[in-house]
């Protein structure tokens, strides 16, 4: 059995299409494409976008449109959803949309599926999301699989395009429920440890122990998503991370805002109680120089034995965000 290490696993990107203070969605989309084009050169494997709604600091509401935009501007990078919140959409619509993407960009599209609303309860209602939709998630995944299968060509309802296309489906999750589902369906599994670290180890164990091989996947395959902010020095990385910490603190307190410019990471930067609450949420966040980040990521991979690492980096300065991913790309080649 091969041991997964920092140098032999794949690295990927989760882009939340974050809107920074003083910027706008147009700037965000331009920077997202620039990031995708650069990480493609640096050897990253995939670039996923997440569906969120009613958040002034996140512009990935029309996730499918953004996936097409990124795929059109790149050539080898896999592009997909991390994820599409399936209860917000009819499975047939998702099959048609991703069938269209996979037709335009063959062998490059991933379909990651989540069961959360990706928003608050009022916006969920505005999306016409059924209150029982989360409970129907497993059956909706299977319905979607049916539309994309070759065997549905005699079905009364068909996804054209989509039917018969080899579109990898992923189950996304932040709890053990998703692990059981991914295992039972024999699908690859991506865990959101970048904001929900508590259940990571239990979820991975459940998924691997209960995995049933399928037509899509013969053995368990796991992605863990983490936050990384790398810079030339520990101090510079900590300075850049002040933007990220303020953003996540806003999520915790319900005061969601756009990504703010970094500030000096002195002892007055954040209230100690806030810092303690924040650290529970961002346990798997790696901030520092190349040497520090390398050591911490090596330890994380050794413990979890994930097959792929997906990295989110909420950095205000676009050049600094690029440099953070560039550092990761270099660490992956060592």
From TrEMBL:
Q: Which domain of life is it from?
A: Bacteria
Domain Luciferase-like, first and last residues per copy: 10-301
Keywords from the named record: Oxidoreductase
**EC code:** 1.-.-.-
What InterPro entries does its record include?
Bact_Lucif_Oxidored, CmoO-like, Luciferase-like_dom, Luciferase-like_sf
SUPFAM superfamilies tied to this protein: Bacterial luciferase-like
Which major enzyme category is it?
oxidoreductase
| Family, as annotated | To bacterial alkanal monooxygenase alpha and beta chains.
Q: What is this protein called?
A: LLM class flavin-dependent oxidoreductase
Q: Which organism is it from?
A: Flavobacterium zubiriense
